[in-house]
Design goal:
The protein is an alpha+beta fold. It is built from five helices and eight strands; from the N terminus they run ββαααβββαβαββ. A hairpin with a 2-residue loop joins strand 1 and strand 2. It binds coenzyme A.
């Protein structure tokens, strides 16, 4: 379980493990992404249903970043799904909150959760048009490969 606070641009931001009570706001956040953002964040381009989000949250591994004074405002999210000893990580930061270090904090917390879950490898799948995210993972030291027209970034814990 993650629960931490950071100060970003003078705002207290809480990063914590999501619970089933957060499913509504996560669904709202993902539903409000415009089409191009949705294509960057969601591998199958489809917003998960409320029930799917509840399922993902119950399995653990979903983190949310919240504006501590405006409790309902979701600033970013990160999730990992397991497959054997591998975790697939996905994340996004609300467009107006990017380039302030929040993505880096979410990724670091996710990697810690992956490690705590006993998994030893992470991958992130990035659409070939998403050069911003590709460069971002590369700068974090993740190793790049290419599969079926998409970037696959690897990180060994
Ligand atoms: C990829 C993504 C999550 C990065 O989030 P972010 O919050 O912008 O990431 P950060 O702020 O941690 O890092 C971005 C850059 O801002 C810089 N930065 C960090 N703090 C900063 C600050 N206070 N002021 C200015 N720049 C800053 C970082 O140094 C970083 O540059 P670097 O990569 O050269 O080190 C975000 O672009 C996003 O949501 N993209 C859409 C979804 C997506 O593509 N997801 C990935 C596939 S699942």
């Amino acid at each position: 379980m993650t629960h931490e606070q950071h100060t970003i641009a003078g705002v207290t931001v809480t990063i914590r493990t999501a619970t089933a009570n957060d499913a509504g706001r996560l669904h709202g956040y993902l539903s409000r992404l415009d089409r191009s953002e949705r294509e960057l964040r969601l591998p199958d381009k489809r917003v998960p249903t409320y029930e799917e989000i509840v399922g993902a949250v119950r399995h653990g591994g979903v983190l949310i970043a919240l504006h501590a004074e405006r409790g309902s405002e979701l600033l970013g999210e990160s999730a990992f799904t397991r497959s054997g000893d591998l975790a697939q990580v996905e994340l996004s930061v609300a467009a107006s909150w990017r380039r302030r270090g929040l993505g880096r904090l979410l990724l670091a917390s996710s990697v810690e959760e992956v490690s705590a879950a006993g998994l030893v490898r992470c991958i992130a799948i990035v659409d070939r048009r998403n050069e911003t995210a590709a460069r971002w993972f590369a700068r974090r030291g993740w190793t790049q490969s290419w599969d079926s027209g998409r970037f696959v970034f690897h990180h060994v814990l």
